[in-house]
Amino acid sequence: MSAEATNPVSAAEAATTDVAVRRRGRARIDLRRLGRAALLGATAGPAPRDRLPDAIGHVAEAHRAHHPEADLSVLGRAYVLAESSHRGQFRKSGEAYITHPLAVTLILAELGAETTTLTASLLHDTVEDTEVTLDQVRREFGDEVAYLVDGVTKVEKIDYGAAAEPETFRKMLVATGSDVRVMSIKLADRLHNMRTLGVMRPEKQARIAKVTRDVLIPLAERLGVQALKTELEDLVFAILHPEEYETTRALVADHPGAADELGAFAEQVTAVLREADVGAEVLVRPRHFVSVHRIRLKRGELRGCDFGRLLVLVAEDADCYAVLGELHTCFTPVISEFKDFIAAPKFNLYQSLHTAIAAPDGAVAEVLIRTHRMHKVAEAGVVALGNPHVGQEPDTAVPQTDDGERVDPTRPGWLSRLLDWQQSAPDPDTFWTSLRADLAEDDEITVFRADGSAPGTISLPAGASCVDAAYAQHGEAAHACLGARVNGRLAPLSTVLGDGDTVQLLLAQDTVSGPSPEWLDHARTPAARIAITGWLRAHPESAPPPAAPSDPRPQVSVPAERRSGPELHADLDGEPPAAVRPAGCCTPVPPDEITGFLVRGGTVTVHRARCSAVEAMRGLGREPVTVRWGDTPQGRVTLVAESFGRPGLLADLTEAIATFGAAVVSANVEPPSEQRVRHTYTLHLPDAAGLAALMRAMRDVPGVYDVSRARHSRGLS
User: Which end of the chain has less neighbouring CB within 10 Å, N or C?
Assistant: First the structure.
């Protein structure tokens, strides 16, 4: 977990400085002061029993602010062990190494973590980097602290390698998933390391920042730890997009009066609520840089109120709606901005009312309305939930599942689902693809179960079908699903469900029925896809090979015509294939390495060699057919452009595509979500060798932050 000192001219340090200036109500920690305090503590001997070492005074102060009755003596003992065991170890900056666990612990203390988590945080590097053993930690601090330290140690033994490797994060999920406090310590550790990343080479900074962006920031979002997520976003933004970061930083600096404009608006809101006798605290919440960047791309020129939001804190849930009523009565509401996350909390426990109101002068301010408890959870997420095993008798064993895993009552439902299906994932690539897809899901829907024996709700990603609902509710018993009733009407399993739909799943009574390969076309969730694939592998005699993607337009020609696309390079008992088609799941184009499979009707479907469907076909006993590209390097490809929404974006992307002579076969623009938009284009390329240049040109369009080859839900890709 060692992290390095900052470089005075690095983007990472600039971001850290900016974040520190903008953070309100948090301690400003000078690592040199921490280092001196740690070293002085080492030479001055142990602190008296009734006094904490000076070096952890700031941690104790932050902890007591959230837990006034906490016993701080255990933190003192943990610090003494950590300092003595790390003594003589230094960071590249020259600071005593103890400053790192101190800083990580302070981050968690400010979020309101309970004493056990802070104790484990102080000790989180001792077992890995010093002579301290796990048994020693257990003897001195108990089973809970030892369990957390062991979990963090297992995570740190993972080699992140040169990229975000699939097996790396499978191990990380297993190591941290049994107790969300382990993941919380890991996130705080990564935040401090990102703050002090500047001394590393630029390419290493970029690698670590990409891993943080792809997995750890989505995990922080899923765990609801917004305070960590927003700062990590800014630090990653500075490293991976330095020009846009500097533009945003200059934009914020050029609007020093934004806080005053929002402050004046806050005074008007305060006066309205005071007159209505609604007790509330109205605060100004500046946006972090990534948020400002997104708003600029969405709205173009920014006004003062766009640089922050108003936060209204009240005592009770009912007060939230009272505030909302007063604001919508006394100001002009922007109805399209209203969202109720109190009645329907987000998957990460987040609750708030969101609205936007306009003042008489035309200024528009976004407003968040929540109780004080909701605010604590919104900032700290699962960290605010404390010790999941508190209140148990000292000698009572922690509850465990049948396979020996500890039961964590604070674990979010999405994490339980990930842990369930990762055990069944057939290979690391499938797991990685599914994990990335699951973490990328920003929207969830809630459907109501109509089964009389099992009423309740099911949470699914937006776009999920009845197939997904079946496996979410019934597990492997969903293999026998015959159909469904959606809102009281019979519907096929392919039906896409909407938020608030009522679904009743119809299961066969026999045990012979099973899923067909076509179900994979309609399965969006990893649990459904992996369960279906497992059944098909176990029953090859009952599962016909997957049909080729249906497309009325011939995508490639038979080899004899020597036109664009893959051609056959094998003898099929003297019979030429009826057609050779690229698979819709991975849309191969030259010069991709390819392989083919013979399917119904004598057609050969062609996949990219690394497509996960290839392994699935082999698992079903299908023998590959050798194929090669024809003479003309043309091809069809599906690209997905991820972007921040802004006016004119579609036109600019289309122009970039047209510049390369690519023909748009089809295009789809999904509705904006959290100011982000996904564009999907199926293109016919005049020269497939220009694909990489085309993707670079699309990435260069302002607002676009990623362009990738599509991974359709068809098959297992």
Answer: N
- Out of 129, 140, 427, 642, which one is annotated catalytic? 129
| pLDDT greater at residue 462 or residue 232 | 232
| Residue 260 CB coordination number (10 Å) | 11
Report whether pLDDT(300) > 90.
no
The total of other beta-carbon atoms located within 10 Å of residue 183's CB is 28
* Dist CA 141 CA 218 (whole Å): 32
CA nearest neighbour of 464 among 488, 499, 492, 439: 499
pLDDT at 118 over 90: yes
pLDDT at 510: 58
Contact 339, 354 (CB under 8 A): yes
Q: Measured between alpha carbons, how far is 546 from 529 in angstroms, rounded to an integer?
A: 14
176 — pLDDT class (breaks 50, 70, 90): low
What is the distance of C-alpha 646 from the center of its chain?
Answer: 23
Is residue 552 situated within a structural domain? no
Please give the Cα distance from 62 to 204 (Å, whole number): 33
Q: How far apart are CA 84 and CA 99, in angstroms?
A: 13
CA 78 to chain centre: 32
Does any domain span residue 319?
yes
110 catalytically annotated:
no
Smallest CA-to-CA distance from 222 within 176, 189, 158, 163 is with 176
Model pTM score:
0.62
Q: How many CA atoms lie within 13 A of 181 on its CB side?
A: 30
- Compute the average pLDDT of residues 300-306: 83
Rounded to 10 deg, the angle between the 242-253 and 226-240 helix axes is 110
Cα dihedral sign, 494-497-502-507: positive
CA atoms of 312 and 266, how far apart (whole Å): 9
Q: Do 212 and 68 share a domain, yes or no?
A: yes
Active-site annotation holder among 61, 128, 443, 451: 128
Beta bridge partners of 465: 496
Domain hosting residue 511, numbered range: 428-538
| Residue type present at position 482 | L
Q: 533 vs 530, 539, 615, 715, CA distance in Å?
A: 5, 10, 11, 9
CA-angle at 70, arms to 66 and 72, nearest 5°: 115
Task: Assess whether 23 and 162 both reside in one domain.
Answer: yes
Q: How many residues does the chain have?
A: 717
pLDDT in the model for residue 238: 94
- Mark whether 571 is an active-site residue: no
Average pLDDT for residues 574-602, to the nearest whole number?
A: 68
CATH of the domain at 515: 3.10.20.30
| Dihedral angle of Cα 229, 235, 241, 242, to the nearest 10 degrees | 150
The DSSP line for 354-397 is EEEEE-TTS-EEEEEEEEHHHHHHHHHGGGGG--TTTTS-TTSP
